Structures are given as structure tokens and as C-alpha cells.
Backbone:
């Protein structure tokens, strides 16, 4: 049991009067039944104090005359320290990493090391017995996730990162220095910096589509979602009122909207056209830039026979077709194509070839963008709309040290750029004067991961083949004895000249760089870790 106490105040320090704090149990614990509620109204000065049983709770604040406002979830453990409501709301949840998990990690390292030492003693003591020695080795191999004694030794020797940001569902730093979140004079959390000048859409971990506010980070199943700028060229994506159908097929507004604000329309088709043996619905668009790559996409629910198409008087478009499954039976279908030399008279189009029985499908949000892949959806209602780029960074002060002293960086990434022509994305960048140096880059044209760095005034780099799916754990280290790059634990054999910093940067940018707007990742990052030491190859292989 923990005591949650403090003072409920607004942004200018005034107590919030007549405000009820309600805790609703999310799941059944040893002492609390799921879905039960407890509440308390703070005093006139905003003071509150609650002794809270262990469990997970949904927290709402309700001011008289207004509906309750959900402010977040809290987790109370048997060993939780006392703190304010702000403090508990700022703590990581089970999906992230509990603060005491760091202690658990260190304890696990000590345990692994002691077990390895015990194995070695057993092997020496049982030198005359092969069976005894094998049993000792087997005990070490049973440590979760480790298959050999050597693996256990490597795991035990990896130190706690000096900077650690899981990027699972928040910007909170488990270790390192970031933007401080304070309750009074007490710092309760440190965060990475994030900004975006517009709203943006995303798909949460349950598959539900959502809208993020200005400067609100987007966390999806694979981590923090980072995109560059994008524009929906379809000037009225909110509905299908200007589209037309043929052969008695109908298109009706259902009167409902989806999570992103699009009107949901129902397309009912009965019989195919005689000439094309297909049913179509389309909307005139106009001319496109010749020889450029575009992607058209639409949210669809129902028959899997319908697909997105771009049509012109000259020909149908052909290209790469991708289907992304979402929640509640919805999917997002996209077509990537390159325009012909004339690129005139295009139609936005949906088509079903060779229909056999009458069917109905639901439609929402048709997007057209100059991009080699579908980016997050942008709602339009009368004119093209642009989504701003995401920018994420941490200060280098106390987080990033000179390469001569030695440092190691590791982060999981994935990117949509894939093998999409001559594209590249910055995974990490830390050079203020030359953003293409002292960085980790993903090149789709070469299907490689590049580690660029400086040796005095000389630029050097090393590249390794990227995973086929454009995703993986990349680790780089440099120091006086050279530089190394690793993908998913596979370490390069060659090392390089001693690495140095031409200029010590003020920030480390994650998933792009403001001076290179075309370098955005268009993907996810997760589990960024920085060590203020050059880890050995064996230690790098053990990073997970």
C-alpha cells in the first residue's frame, strides 16, 4: 500500500476547487476487485491524501458541472514509495519498464555472473568426470535467453546504459538527462524532446486509428512513430459525395464517421459493366507531374475483391499493391505507381473485377500523395492539407561524450522506405555542422546501414547489409581503438582509425535532422541506449 498525497492546482498555482479524484480498478488484484471505484474530494486548498491498495487504476478528475476527465493510468505495487498523483501518473506502466526493474536487471547480472563462476568451479572440481562437467554447463545454459556459458558471461558484462529511453509508450528516460517534469521542486521524470507543428494520425497498439494533437508523439505497436512531411493531394477526402458509379450501382452516406473524422460511405454493386466485366466508382482528379511516384490509398471494410486504382485516358496504372489490416474488419489498401510521360486526365478510382454476387463495402478517406509508400492519413475538406514532420532529440549535455573517451549507441528501428529507389533516412544524427556525418543512416538504394564518423578532419564510414525487412537492432561504437557497427548482434570484423568529434553537437536527433528534411525515417524507433564507454564486440553481441 502506498500513500498518494499532494496538492491539486492549476497552471498558475491556484487550488482546483470542487474537483473529485476517482480511481477505478482496471483489473482484480489480491485486495481490490476489478471495475470498483474509490474517490476523494480535495480540501478547499487542493490538499488530498489517499492510502491506495496495490493494483492498476484509471484516474479521472471531475469538476462539478462538467463530465469527468480521464487523465491517465497509475500502477501501485506493494513496494511503491509514497508520492503525489502527478508522480504516479508519470511512472512507466507494465508495458514499459518499472523503475525497480533497473535494480532487478543489475541483480540479474550479478546472479548470472555468480552462476557462471559456479559453473567454472564445478567444471574444475569435476575434471575427472565428463558427466559432471556437462551437468554444470547445462545449468548455465538454462538461464533465460542464454544458450552458452559464453553468452552468460557476455550478458553479465554489459553495463547499465548511461542513457536509456524505451520509447514504448512515452518519451520518459529511465537513465540520462532530459526535459524535467517537476512536482513542486521535485523532478519526477526526465523526457526526450519532441515536436510537430500539426496534428497527425496513427494506429495504436490495438489497431485503432487515432489523431495526435500538435506536438503529441505517436506510439504504435513498434515504438515511437516518426515521419517526414506529407501532403494529401485529394482535396476532399472526408467524403465520396463527388464520386460516381455506373450500371445502377449505388453509393450512399451511412451517416456515420470513423475515428479520424471521415464520413463512412456504402458502395453497393449489383452487376458488372458489359464492356469491362467490372464495377467501378471514380472521381476526376486532373493532371499529375510526369515521371513521378505517387501512392493512392483508401480505408475499406467488406469484400476483399475491391482495390484502389488510378486511371487515365491513356492507361490503367500498375504498381506495388499493399494491404494493411486494421481493427474491426477495416483495412487500408494502397497502390504505388509512377506516372507516364503525359500524366494527364487522371481519375481516383475503386474497382471490382469479375464480380460474381451483389455485395456491399464500406469506404472512408481516399488519399493521394507524391510518395513511394502510403504515409499516415491526412483528412482534407476542400483543399490539399500538409502534415508537418516529426522531430525528436535529446541534449548532448551529460548524455553524449567525446569519441576519444569512447561511446556506444544502440537502437531498434524500422522504416517504410524499404527498397524504394534512391532514398535514405537518418536513424541517429549528432553533427551540428554536417548532419550527414557522425550518424547512422539507412540507404534503401543500396539496402545498407551506414555509420559515418570523423577521424580528425577526415570523413570515414562503414556500411553493412540491412535486414531484408528494413528493420533491426543497430549498434555502433567508436573510441581511440577504432569504430564498429553491428546489425542484430552480427558485428563487423574490420575496425577503423581512431574516431573523434570535429564539433561537439548540442543535440542528438532521432529519426531525422531539421537541416535535412528529406531524411526522416518514416518508421519507428525503440529502446535507444547510449553507453559512455566503447563496449567490446562480445558485449555488443549480447545486446538485445
Residues:
Amino acid at each position: 500500500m502506498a500513500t498518494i498525497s499532494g496538492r491539486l492546482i492549476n497552471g498558475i498555482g491556484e487550488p482546483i476547487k470542487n474537483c473529485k479524484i476517482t480511481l477505478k480498478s482496471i483489473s482484480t488484484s489480491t485486495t481490490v476487485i476489478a471495475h470498483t471505484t474509490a474517490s476523494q474530494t480535495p480540501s478547499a486548498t487542493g490538499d488530498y491524501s489517499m492510502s491506495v491498495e496495490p493494483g492498476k487504476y484509471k484516474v479521472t478528475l471531475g469538476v462539478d458541472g462538467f463530465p469527468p476527465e480521464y487523465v491517465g493510468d497509475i500502477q501501485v505495487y506493494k513496494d511503491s514509495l509514497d508520492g503525489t498523483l502527478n508522480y504516479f501518473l508519470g511512472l512507466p506502466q507494465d508495458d514499459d519498464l518499472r523503475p525497480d526493474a533497473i535494480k532487478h536487471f543489475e541483480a540479474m547480472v550479478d546472479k548470472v555472473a555468480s552462476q557462471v563462476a559456479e559453473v567454472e568451479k564445478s567444471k574444475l572440481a569435476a575434471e575427472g568426470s565428463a558427466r559432471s562437467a556437462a551437468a554444470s554447463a547445462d545449468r548455465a545454459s538454462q538461464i533465460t535467453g542464454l544458450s552458452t556459458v559464453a553468452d552468460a558471461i557476455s550478458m553479465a558484462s554489459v553495463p547499465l546504459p548511461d542513457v536509456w529511453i524505451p520509447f514504448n509508450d512515452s518519451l520518459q528516460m529511465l537513465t540520462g538527462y532530459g526535459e524535467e517534469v517537476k512536482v513542486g521542486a521535485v523532478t519526477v521524470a526526465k523526457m526526450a524532446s519532441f515536436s510537430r507543428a500539426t496534428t497527425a494520425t496513427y494506429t495504436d497498439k490495438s489497431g485503432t486509428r487515432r489523431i495526435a494533437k500538435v506536438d503529441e508523439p505517436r506510439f504504435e505497436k513498434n515504438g515511437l512513430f516518426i515521419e517526414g512531411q506529407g501532403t494529401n493531394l485529394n482535396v476532399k477526402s472526408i467524403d465520396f459525395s463527388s464520386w460516381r458509379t455506373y450500371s445502377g450501382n449505388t453509393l450512399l452516406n451511412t451517416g456515420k464517421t470513423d475515428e479520424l473524422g471521415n464520413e463512412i460511405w456504402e458502395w453497393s454493386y449489383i452487376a458488372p459493366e458489359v464492356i469491362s466485366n467490372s464495377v467501378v466508382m471514380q472521381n476526376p482528379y486532373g493532371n499529375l507531374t510526369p515521371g513521378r511516384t505517387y501512392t493512392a490509398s483508401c480505408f475499406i471494410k467488406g469484400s476483399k475483391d475491391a482495390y484502389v486504382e488510378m486511371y487515365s485516358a491513356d492507361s490503367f496504372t500498375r504498381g506495388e499493391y499493399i494491404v494493411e489490416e486494421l481493427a474491426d474488419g477495416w483495412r487500408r489498401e494502397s497502390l504505388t505507381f509512377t506516372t507516364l510521360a503525359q500524366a494527364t486526365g487522371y481519375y481516383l478510382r475503386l474497382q471490382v473485377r469479375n464480380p460474381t454476387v451483389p455485395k456491399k463495402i464500406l469506404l472512408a478517406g481516399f488519399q493521394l500523395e507524391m510518395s513511394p509508400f502510403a504515409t499516415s492519413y491526412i483528412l482534407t475538406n476542400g483543399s490539399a492539407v500538409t502534415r508537418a514532420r516529426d522531430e525528436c532529440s535529446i541534449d548532448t549535455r551529460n548524455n553524449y561524450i567525446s569519441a576519444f573517451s569512447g561511446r556506444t549507441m544502440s537502437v531498434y528501428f524500422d522504416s517504410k522506405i524499404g527498397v524504394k529507389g534512391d532514398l535514405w533516412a537518418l536513424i541517429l544524427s549528432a553533427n551540428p555542422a554536417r548532419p550527414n556525418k557522425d550518424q547512422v543512416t539507412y540507404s534503401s538504394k543500396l539496402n545498407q546501414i551506414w555509420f559515418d564518423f570523423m577521424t580528425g578532419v577526415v570523413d570515414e564510414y562503414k556500411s553493412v547489409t540491412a535486414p531484408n525487412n528494413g528493420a533491426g537492432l543497430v549498434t555502433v561504437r567508436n573510441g581511440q581503438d577504432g569504430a564498429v557497427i553491428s546489425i542484430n548482434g552480427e558485428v563487423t570484423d574490420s575496425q577503423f582509425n581512431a574516431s573523434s568529434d570535429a564539433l561537439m553537437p548540442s543535440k542528438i536527433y532521432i529519426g531525422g535532422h531539421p537541416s535535412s528534411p528529406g531524411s526522416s525515417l518514416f518508421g519507428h524507433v525503440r529502446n535507444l541506449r547510449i553507453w559512455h564507454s566503447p563496449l567490446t564486440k562480445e558485449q555488443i553481441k549480447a545486446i538485445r
About this structure: Residues 126-147 have pLDDT under 50 and may be disordered. The longest strand covers residues 359-369.
